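Any chance you could type out some protein's one-letter sequence along with its backbone structure tokens so I can compare the two?
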Amino acid sequence: MIPLLLALVFLSCETSSHLPQEKRPGGSGSKAPVTTESSDESGINTDDWTAAKSLVDLVGKWESSGDSIYEYPFKVDGKKYMRIAWSECDDTPIWKAYALKKGCDMQTLWQIRFSCISDIYGQNLPIADANGTQYGIKLSQRDGRIYSRREMLVSERLLLVNLGFFLISPDKDLFVEKGTLRLASDNFDDLSSGGNIYRRKNGGE
């Protein structure tokens, strides 16, 4: 059983090239969460930033200006992961289209959402691989609209060999993605940096 992650989808609010995706022969790497803020755009000089030295440097919830999130440690079934969450998307139009197709109202569709996610998004997911990486989508409903957020859980073991992906500021309150987060997976492409800056929102477990 894969907890928390409900289904995987490539949605209209971001192109699929910006998302981690199933590995296909000849496929290129995918980008980490994409936002409008980068080290170049913000005017922040990252020349004296250094790669994370240990998992301790990554503890906390980190958010970008575009509402993308890195969070460590994220605990599931007694195991620690890094949670990567892409910005939330308003999927109401595709849910309305499906409700119209099936001849039901949105309230009824929401009540049976878990049985129809695969039909709506075209894939029978979530997905996990042999390294414990999990990838899917969480759904929420607010003010009559349906939102999705794509999420990935990356194990501590993989984080330890990817510390160089996280370039930390001297005060350890910011990081910028650099290079590639390698997932060593038969199911997922590696994640490539979008150059996004993240701010630490808290520092404890």
Q: What stands out?
A: The two ends are 25 Å apart (CA to CA). The chain has five helices and 14 strands. The first helix runs from residue 39 to 42.
